[in-house]
Amino acid sequence: MARRGGWRRGAVLLLALALVAGAIYTAVGFLQRSETLVTERCTATGAGGEDLATDQAANAALISAIAVRRGLPARAASIALATSMQESKLRNIGHGDQAGPDSRGLFQQRPSQGWGTEQEVMDPVHAANAFYDALVKIPGYESLPITEAAQEVQRSAYPGAYAQHEPMARAFASALTGYTAPGLDCSLRKPETAGDPGQIQQRLASAFGAIPATTAGRTVTVSAEATQAWAVAQWAVANAKALGITEVRVDGHSWTRLSHNGWQAANAPAGQVTITVAADPAA
Questions:
Q1: How far apart are the first and last CA of the chain?
Q2: Looking at the 3D structure of the chain, how many domains does it have?
Q3: 3-state helix, strand, coil in the chain (%, to 5)
Q4: What percentage of the chain carries pLDDT values higher than 90?
Q5: What values do phi and psi take at 53, rounded to 5?
Q6: What is the pLDDT of residue 36?
Q7: Labelling 147: which of 18, 125, 138, 140 has CA 20 to 30 A away?
Q8: Do 194 and 164 sit in the same domain of this protein?
């Protein structure tokens, strides 16, 4: 009888272990598929683990695109991103602080100090251009430490604070100006609304200036070469959350919103970027 009882206990134990293993497998599968557990963030190669929220990444992409548009080096974008991160956390905020009550926008520029009207400094395109206008007047800014170049523009009460953002700024600037390819990835949930190809073209023109682009259905095709193509492609990834972008293809690579696998090898010719937006979920 003892032998039979031991066999039964062993069988019950094995069955219990199998049920637990099955439950764990099911739970892991559910967690992997659950959209609610996706943390929406963007990261850049070499950023030292410092991610950006999707709205921060979109602002970083605009600041970097304007550097590309002006023909400035990636170093200029690095300085600008470190400055904006310190001043506003890369957010277009509509208030200042005790040191600058009228400070506004991505760079906390003060209308009282000649940066433009309050409406202008709250316009990210104007704010970025105003920052670069001041930066390029600094002799040899490209070879200055980021904190020194930023301080020459901003005249901050805490000049050493810009240095802490240098790894993030260098990594995101390198990706978003097209020098690190592929260097930017965003982890996103599925889009809730349809994307608008017309809005993609409008935002591209605002960021990069006159750039050849056509639309067919839900896809915008941009003609661009080399680093500019990667700058446009990674701009699209950084803006995928806000603009309902689901896929980006460029130079033998593709980024697909719901794969969560980053850039993958794909059939994508050089010389063009294709940006596809979401269809209407209700259709």
A1: 67
A2: 2
A3: 50, 15, 35
A4: 73
A5: -65, 160
A6: 65
A7: 125
A8: no
Q: How far apart (Å, rounded) are the C-alpha atoms in residues 97 and 64?
A: 26
Out of 128, 151, 176, a domain closes at 176
Q: Give the pLDDT score at 28.
A: 43
Q: What is the pLDDT of residues 77-96, one digit of tens each?
A: 999 999 999 999 999 998 87
- pLDDT given for residue 139 in this prediction: 96
In the sheet that 253-256 helps form, which strands lie side by side, from edge to edge? 213-216, 219-223, 272-277, 245-250, 253-256, 263-265
Closest CA to 87 of 58, 59, 107: 107
Residue reference for tokens 């670069």 = 132
With respect to residue 55, please indicate whether it lies within any of the assigned structural domains. yes
Cβ 50 vs Cβ 164: under 8 Å? no
Residues 283, 41: Cα–Cα separation, whole Å: 28
Q: Measured at the alpha carbon of residue 183, what is the angle toward residues 179 and 187, in degrees to the nearest 5? A: 150
Per residue in 134-179, pLDDT (tens digit) is 999 999 999 999 999 999 998 876 767 898 999 999 999 999 999 9
Instruction: Say which residue the tokens 């069988």 belong to.
Output: 11
* Half-sphere CA count of 234, side-chain side, radius 13 A: 34
The per-residue pLDDT for 101 is 82
Q: What does the pLDDT read at residue 48?
A: 76
Is 121 part of any domain?
yes
Q: CB atoms < 10 A from the CB of 221, how many?
A: 16
Pair (139, 204) in one structural domain: no
- Model's pTM, two decimal places? 0.85
What would the two tokens of residue 195 be? 């994307």
Yes or no: say if 245 and 204 are a contact pair by the CB < 8 Å rule: no
Q: What angle do CA 202, 67, 90 make, to 5 degrees?
A: 80
Intervals of the chain under pLDDT 50: 1-2, 23, 26-33
> Is 59 in the same domain as 87?
yes
- Cα 52 to the chain's mean position, in Å? 7
